[in-house]
Amino acid sequence: MQSQFQGVPTQIAKHDPFTGLWNDSLRVIPCRRDHSYVMWHDDSFTSCLICGFSRWHALMLSAREMSLDMFSNAMQHLRDVNRVDFAGNYPIHFLMTAGVAMDYFFQLYKWPNSSAQNVFGQNPLHVLNPRDLGESLIHFLDWFKTREQPPGLLLTQRDIYGKTPLHTLFQHPLERHLYVKVLKVFPYAEHQLRSLDTSGRPCMQMMYDASLRLKDQNPQDFERMQAGIAEVNGFLSQAAITSTEPPGPKYGFHDIARGARGTSYFGFFQCKICYSGDLHSNSYIDQMKCACANGRDRNAPDESGMTPAHALLTHSRANNNPELTPESPAQIAELLEVLIPRDDPTMREALHVLDPEGHTLVWNAAIRGLDTALAYILSAEEAGRRRAMVNAVGISTTYVDVSHSNTPDPAGGMSSHVPYTHSVPQTTEVSILEAVVIKLRKVREDLKTAEMVGDRRVRRSLATLGNSLLNVRKILIANGAVVAPGPTMKWKIN
User: With CB atoms counted within 10 Å of each terminal CB, which end of the chain scores lower, N or C?
Assistant: First the structure.
C-alpha cells in the first residue's frame, strides 16, 4: 500500500544498537542494527526480529517535528502495526524520550498503553525528557502519581540499576523554580535524593556528572543544572534541619543480611529498629519482619551498590545456637519471602535490580546452589518474564599466566634472559546455565579429590552442594534456560 505520508520530514532519533539505547535513556534489546533512520511512514519496513522495533516506535520518536493532527492521523494509519517491543516498551516509553508537549500524550492515550516497567526496570517516567513540558511538568507528574496503586508507585520504582524516576529526571536541565516544585510531587523526595544507585552514587552526584556532560555542548543548560544542584542542596539542608531522625543510614535490611543481631546486654536483646526489648527475638526472620513493619526501604542499594536481596544471597549467616550452624537454603528462601512477598506486585522490581558486578538475583542464587531461593524468586514474578530471568548473562573472570622473556631495566633499557610470569584477568560473558554447569563440573572434580584424601567433612559438603546445583540446573531448564541464549532470549518479555 502506498503511504499518504511519504515525503514528510521526521526528526532523526539517536539509537545505539550495540548498547541498546534510544536517545541515551530508553533501554532496548541490543540488536546491532541501527534503526535511527527508520521512517514511520515507510510501509516497506517490518518490525525488527531481534528487538521488536516497529514503525509505531519510529513515529513516537519523531513526534516533536509533527503537528498534532499529523501525529493523530499517523497513529490511525499504523493501527495494525505492533506497538510493544520485545523488551516490554510501549509507545509511551518512546514518546517520553522525544521531549514533546502535553498535547501529544493526550493524543497517544486514546490508544491502549501501559505504564509497566520494561525488562530493564524502566517505567515511562524513567525516560522522561521534559524539554517541551515547561510548567506542565508538575501536572504531568501529578497525573502519573495517581495512575497506579498505591499512589506514587510510578514515581518511586527503581530500574535494574537502582535509579528512580527522580534520579533520571534531575539529569535533565530544568528552569530553576521547577526543582522544588518537582520535589514536592515526588513521594519520599528526601529519601530518594539520598538513595544510591548500584554504583553507589546519590542523586546529587548524578546531577553533577550530567552537568559536566553539558558544559561544552550547551553552556546555558549547564548553568541550569548548576542552579538545580544549588536548589536541591538547599532542599536537603532544610530537610536536615527540620528532621527528627538522627543523621546517617538507619539500621535495617543490609545489616540483618550481613549477620547483625541488634544489641544484647547480658542476654537482653534490644532491637535497633523498634528499640523494643520484648516484642520479638533477635532472629534474622523476626528482625526482617520488624524492618518491614517499620518501613525500611526493601530495595535501596547501599554504599557498595548492593541491595538487601543480593546481600541475603551473597553473605553467610549462622543460626543462633551453640553450634552456630550455617543457615540452610530453605532459611534463606524464607528471609526472601519476607523481604519480597509473592502476593505484593509492587515489590517485584527488587527481583531484577543488579548487584555492583552486574549480576542478577537469579544468577547469585543459581551459582551458589540456593535452589529453594531460586525457585521462590522465579515463582514471585509473572510467567512471561521468567525466561528472560533465567537467560540473563553474567561475567566470569579467569586468570591466565603470561610469560615474558625480558624484564624492564631500571636504566630504561631491557634486561634479557630474565623470564618472569604474571597473571592477567580475562572476563567473558556466560549464561546462568553455563555458569552452573561449570560450577557443577568443578564440584565433581573437588569431590574426587576429597574422596582420595579421605576428607569426609569436605566430601559431605561438596555432595550437598552438587545435589543443590543439580536441582538448580533442573529449575533453570524448566523455565526455559539455554547454555547460549541469543540477545532476544536474554531480554524478551513474552
Answer: N
DSSP E strand boundaries for 343-406: 393-404
**Alpha-carbon span 335 to 291, nearest angstrom:** 12
Residue from 397, 484, 384, 380 nearest 432 by CA: 484
Torsion of CA 71, 74, 78, 82, to 10 degrees: -20
Query: What DSSP string describes 198-253?
Result: TTS--HHHHHHHHHHHHHTT-HHHHHHHHHHHHHHHHHHHHHHHH--SPSSPPS-H
Q: Say if CB 92 and CB 124 are below 8 A apart.
A: yes
List b or e across 269-301, with b for residues whose CB sees 16 or more CB atoms inside 10 angstroms: bebbbeeeeeebebebebbbbbbbeeebbbbbb
CATH of 15-242 given 1.10.1740.10, 1.25.40.20, 3.40.50.2300, 3.40.50.1220: 1.25.40.20
Grid look-up 550452624 returns: 325
Domain boundaries, given as residue ranges, for the chain: 15-242
Which residues fall within 8 angstroms of residue 265, CB to CB, at 6 or more apart?
none
CA–CA gap between residue 167 and residue 184 (Å, rounded) = 15
Three cell numbers written together for 340: 519480597
The rounded distance, in Å, linking the Cα atoms of 182 and 193 is 12
C-beta separation of 63 from 98 below 8 A? yes
Contacting residues for 480 by C-beta, under 8 A, at least 6 apart: 386, 387, 390, 391, 489
Task: Go through 131-170 and write b for each residue having 16 or more CB atoms within 10 A of its CB, e for each that does not.
Answer: eebeeebeebbeebbebbeeebbbbbbbbbbbbbbbbbbb
| CA 282 to chain CA centroid, nearest Å | 31
List pLDDT tens digits, range 394-445: 877 666 666 665 555 555 555 555 566 666 666 788 999 999 999 999 999 9
Task: Give pLDDT tens digits for 125-153.
Answer: 999 999 999 999 999 999 999 888 899 99
In three-state secondary structure terms, 424 is strand
Cα pseudo-dihedral 205, 206, 208, 209, rounded to 10: 110
Which residues partner with 422 through β-bridges?
402
